[in-house]
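Q: Two folds, back to back.
A: First:
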Amino acid sequence: MSDNENTPTLTRKPLGLKRSVDAGEVKQTFSHGRTNKVTVEVKRRRALKRPGEEGHSAPEPEVEVAAPPPPPAPPPPPKKPVVKAPAGETPQERVARLQREAEEERLRLTEEQTRRETEERAQALEEEKRRAEENRRAAAQEAAAVAAAPAEPEAKAEEAVEAAEGSEASASAEGDEATPAAAPAPRKFTPVARPEVKRPEKKRDDRKQQQQQQPAGRGHVDDRRRGGKLTVNRALNEDEGARARSLAALKRAREKERRAHMGGMSQPREKQVRDVIVPEAITVQELANRMAEKGADLVKALFNMDMMVTVNQTIDQDTAELLVEEFGHNIVRVSDSDVDIDTTEDVDSEETLQPRPPVVTIMGHVDHGKTSLLDALRGTDVVRGEAGGITQHIGAYQITTKDKHKITFLDTPGHEAFTQMRQRGANVTDIVILVVAADDGLMPQTIEAIKHTKAAGVPMIVAINKIDKPEAKPQKIRERLLEHEVVVEAMSGDVQDVEVSAKTGAGLDELIEKILLQAELLELKANPDRPADATVIEAQLDKGRGPVATVLVNRGTLKRGDVFVVGNESGRVRALVDDKGQQVKEAGPSMPVEVLGLGGVPNAGDHLTVVENEQRAREVATYRQQQATAKRTATAPANLDAMFAGLKSDVKEFPVVVKADVQGSAEAIVTALHNLSNDEIKVRVLNSGVGAITESDVTLASASKAPIIGFNVRPNAKARELIARHKVEMKYYDVIYQLTEEIAREMAGVLGPLRIENVVGRAEVKQVFPAGKRDKAAGLLVLEGIIRKGLYARLTRADVIVSATTIASLRRFKDDVDEVRVGLECGVVLADTNDIKAGDHLEVFEVEERERTL
């Protein structure tokens, strides 16, 4: 450094590097008064010196054969010359120069370190090669010694080890006394440091006896010589390694010996011939599974038949027969209809039947007290859980009477939209309770329930409800039932009737007695010891549990783990939940349970059948799905002409997307919406499903400009984002008649107000004369009514409409008038038409707009 740099100033401390060995500090100055202090470190590396130089402690010499002299130590790094700062250097230039010098010094040290590491790595590699060569020579000498004296290998090995240990000890002692320059004495071999291994404690006599039994001599080749390098550790641990062999290795060795004793040729296993069931269409992989063959072998055989197929490709029955015969199996042909399950011929014998609880369905008009009656029987409150106080689903419950008898109740909706749900209830039931309000009489849904009951051939019990009201007239109800051929016992008929009050509980015990009496007359029995056969009462898509179906077991016992087919879906029973929310292991006949583990949501009314395995279940479900697809496509237009003919129709469409909480509600909503259609507008249900509103529903509704109808469901998070983005119209409901009323108003709004034409007058054109440059005026004789200015007019010629227009000008002689009455003559100018001839007729009418209702 120069003297100018060491001169202190009045403003700041002079900038420079500390002269210490460890570090130096540099202060940087930037614009806006910012400063920064940088620490520059210089790390010194320990210099390697030759042995004997000052500061070097010679290590103890190792005893090795022909050890090369140690490599020369690298020369110490040259000292960096001190560069004096030029005079007149600014602080910024000084900082930049110091940083540049520090970077150059770092690069130089890095290069030196890399060069030293490369040299050390090369020396270590050379040393490793030298040691490996010495070990190889030593191992060869040991192997030769062992081969020369095979009777005592262990003793020789021990002597060699002891000799090696003694030699090493003596060599180390001599090395301590000798100077570093003294050369070690040459030895036969150099022992290599190895990890200490415990020798197995085994009798030497046994090993010697086994070794003596082996043939000795030059012609015998020891197996140990084939295994590569033989070391002392390997010679000592040979027996221990044999004991550590796995059981599978021993089995393979025994099998190898057995094949060797049998002449070296293994006898081929006898091929198992199978009866392969082949439907009309089957995939190559499925056929391979049924034949217990490899799929690749079948594909290869098809390639030889000049058929380029893959394992996932479907082949016909004839091709499958060729493959089955090619591999030596027997084919069993079945048709597609044989794949499906036919339960009509599966009848249980009389010896296996046991009594079962009766299934009772409660039917009637809406608000006649069906659910309240069931609530009184169960002792729980079901009505509070239903929106608007009306039942929207089929509820299935089982109660136990005081006499320990079990009765299963099905509560069906009474609203007109749930016709199919009531019909399902009548088809799966044993007894129908027809609930009629004593103060209201017979209603449309009551009459419909009577028809369903008669069609199903089910006995009926009439429960006249609400007898606690003062305006109740039970006798009038009995008389009204005669109109529909329902004769109660009080009227000398065969239909039981009972007066009850769900509010006060009156007559409930008598109702239960009549149910048990009717069940005893029916002699209800079923076989519980067989695979279950059930009917789906209701199905829904639960957010946490997935597809859930409420089923009523008809016969057999449904158990957890059973594989089943229900409608177009298949699955395995994951859990069974009874009507009280408790999980059960099995469900017997006439027991309603919720089934979890379905592959999808089935339709209400589908039959559930337990099958033997999952393969059979998938096969039946696939066949049913194909049949459903074929049925849907059969209703599509046959050609383009039929499709365009449907598009040209004047009937407007009202597209909707329907999502409901359960399958029965979705089915009822679709039916109710179709009933709203007429000759002018019809409802087109783009999609109806069960579960929450998803992104696909929103995308479909957005593309079709259709509203989404949600019945007791809401959209998920992603669907809500799409709804806000695409401005899709959402409609949420929990009562079905509110839904139908609002959709009816929406459809009426699409059609617009109802236009009604009222004819005001008629006139005949007597003469036509010009009026102005382009218009023509018609001289009229009013035949009926009046002709008024500004009204709509329709010009006809030979009862054919020529033009529909309005009356722009009306004159009588030369005066403008507002109207001309019957029997008078006048002149008119029609707007937007000059096609007027004598003899034409003019019909004048006015249009009245009214609110449209469907």
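A: Second:
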Amino acid sequence: MSLQFIIAITEHRNLGYVLAPYLVEKKGSNTFYSVVKKIHCHNLDDGDYAYSPTEKKLVSLMEKYSNENLLDRFGNRGGLNDFFKHIDLDTFTKQVVPYIEKQILKCLDLLKEDSIPLYRKESKYSNLYEEDRIELCYRDTSAVFNFERLEHETRYYLTIRYHDQEISLQHRNVILLTNHPCRLLYQGKLYFFDNLAGNKLLPFFEKNYVSIPRSVEDKYYRTFVLSTIRHHQVHAKGFDIVEGNPEKKAILSLEEDQRKNPRLMLKFRYNQRDFPYIDKEMQAVYLRKQNGNYTFYKFERDKNWEKDLLKSLRKMGLVKTSSGLHPEGISDVTSSEYFYSLINWLNNHRQEMEEAGIEIEQHNLDRKYYTGSHTLNIEISDESDWFDIYAYVNFGEFRFPFVRLKKNILNGVREFQLPNGEIAVLPEEWFARYRDIFTLSEADTEHLKLRKHHFPVLENNLGGVHKKYLKKFETLTQEQPEAPEVPQKLNALLRSYQEEGFGWMYHLHQHHFGGCLADDMGLGKTVQTLALLLKTQRKVNGYPTLFDQVEDDKNGKNRQFSKNHQPASLIVLPTSLVHNWEDEILKFAPSLRYYKYIGARRRHKISMQDIIHQHDVILTTYGTVRNDREFLKQYQFYYLILDEGQYIKNSGSKTYRAINDMNASHRLVLTGTPIENSLSDLWSQINFLNRGLLGSLAWFKREFISPIERKNDEEAQKKLQQLIQPFILRRTKEQVARDLPPLSELIRYVDMTPEQKKAYEAEKSSIRNNILSNIEEIGLEKSAFVVLQGLIRLRQLANHPAMIEDNQHIESGKFNEILRMLSILVAEKHKILIFSSFVRQLKLLAKEFETNGWNYSLLTGQTRDRKKVIDDFQNNPDNNIFLISLKAGGVGLNLTSADYVFIVDPWWNPAAEMQAVNRAHRIGQDKKVFVYRFITEGTIEEKIQKLKEKKSSLAEKFINSNNPFRSVSKDELMHLFED
């Protein structure tokens, strides 16, 4: 048996004409084929025929419109009869028929590729004859649409051609197999019309032409006729169709889309007809009616010209999307800044687009925007203590001072109205680049005035101008500027980093800028400053001007000094550092005459004018300046130097205001901790040094404190660093480690004695209950005093129960361990610094030392003669122990004879402990330093230590906040009092 696979066009009683697959057989000498079976997916594997992949694919496609599959895809409930009986005509026409035609078209495309025969089969016959075979005519088919405009009507008819033969369809047996694209079966041939819808042929199956009355012809010509001319070949009588090369322009339109979102749309204008670049239609047709006559213009769009223009815009940075064009890297079309980015792009590329032949237009916008080029020209004069900035803006024909845009720049307003009513959109980069200049400068109607210490603002924001105007400041921005010669009168050999610090301060001095030397403690800030004072000492004929001739007036008052006179420099210190500075001056700069302006009788012996005239340096304290503010502000000093400058960190304090009232030609701050709690600490010190460098405090909070401290804004950090970098020099011990002795830090955990533990637990329970009760009654923040009081009592019990009156008889585990270790170290002749927050603790230790016969020194806030106490420890070989309260001795002490440091009661802030450690671990130390921190296990001390090691949020709040109870939670707090 010889079987053959064929496809047949057959009529389905519900679906109309469809394709179906069959196996047929020709027997013997028969001239016809007999149908063996209709093929379905389920009987492909019967084994009676080997199907090719194409044949299997055809069966699968035709199976998709089997009754069962159609029911499954489009039906709801019931069987096949119900499906075809109840399906509505709209669903059938718009969903079912297109779905079936889609499968049929796929099958016909496969038939074009393979030699699989196609037959016409009547459903009631099972034999197929040669005359039933269908020829596929998929080449050289065409349809010509004919329109004839007459006096009272327009006639329309269709001419079908195959090769050069015209085919008449009227009154013929024609089968429309698919509508669009049209597949038409006629006289044994299947014609393929790829650009023709079959429904346009239907009228001509019954009539020669279609008549359109004159009354509706206008609408007919503007719709059907125009569309037909665009897509098909048309023969016209009674009106004209003009074809040829049109005038063309490229338009980049700034407009809104249907969703009111802004966009740039590229349009190609042919003979006044616009085609968006996303329009795929390459045949263009438009209609003009004049004096009752219709003329259609038809042309091909210039595809290569359009591609070249689009390529030009891509090179300019525009990206193509389905809705329009937008600048590369900008895609959020709903953003308010997006519209401005489009206009700025047009501003920046106007000339390039003109050269490319692209015009700019605006459509559907509520205002007219300026889309031309713009320029900003800047000139600078620096003849005075200011930079005078003359800047002018050009928007096309309009030119005006840049100062007029100050409000826009400071308030972030992008739109500025030009005299002709157009809206200019200011470039976004102007806001980032010039906002600081406007903020920090003074303005008049024509130009800006910027203080010289703001040269980093010019350097970072005005680009090329700094080479011309900022060359003189190179020494402040170079990493290693040429160092000045160290004064010969300095009795010290400066280390390399100290020479660098001295040179840096001297360069600031030459430019009349204030500076903050923020080296770590122990790196020799004092000796660097003394070198600066020696270097800047003014001389006349080779001698200091301290003893220039003076003349009294007739009353012996109001002395007039020589114009060459250099007044003394005022150095403001914590009280504890006065003797340290005195020692350093005598040791390293004995040629400097100094005066201590301290104590109750500070003004009794000599007038301040004489003091200033007869000395190089005046040492005083912050308290003295605060108390003598009105008196001291009358005088002019040469340098105003603040040691431990963090004393003025609170800009609202009396100390800050008093210091800022002092008059001096130069200013300097020395501190190891320029920022203790907040960036506002930095603002206070920088504003003292260079008034206005960081703007107002309100501006500084808005621009830096809030973004950096709350959001960790890296850009704000970078910007702040650029502003202050020339005026702050900070070196850590790690950076100059080769110049420092080694340091070993250990934590010694100790147990409580049984009685101590019992007393501690009882007190902890009582405190916890008391705190909880207070929190419930008045809230956490108002309970701060009760909490702090409770923490202090627990700390005292953890150190020594005897610190609380009722526990004098109870011993302390920590206390005993400290004494044990001290007995060994004293015997080995080591020197030890012992720091505690509690003076009572120090006194308990001192009592035991006296019992043991150990010599010691004691420094607290009550100590009168600090210098004597310090000298005794430093120079007495039999005095091995120095008891120091953290508050009184955390700064300003140079105790390099010690090689052991005991931190008896570590607490929240490690910075305070390191200040204590730095009393011994500093320049001049030639021994390895050991640091022991004593922690009582099972107490509040151990909890705090673990929180610090983990860098917990609770620890950070207590370390970094003046009032941690504003941000700490009840649960966090009560965790400290848990078992």
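Q: And?
A: Residues 243-362 form one domain.
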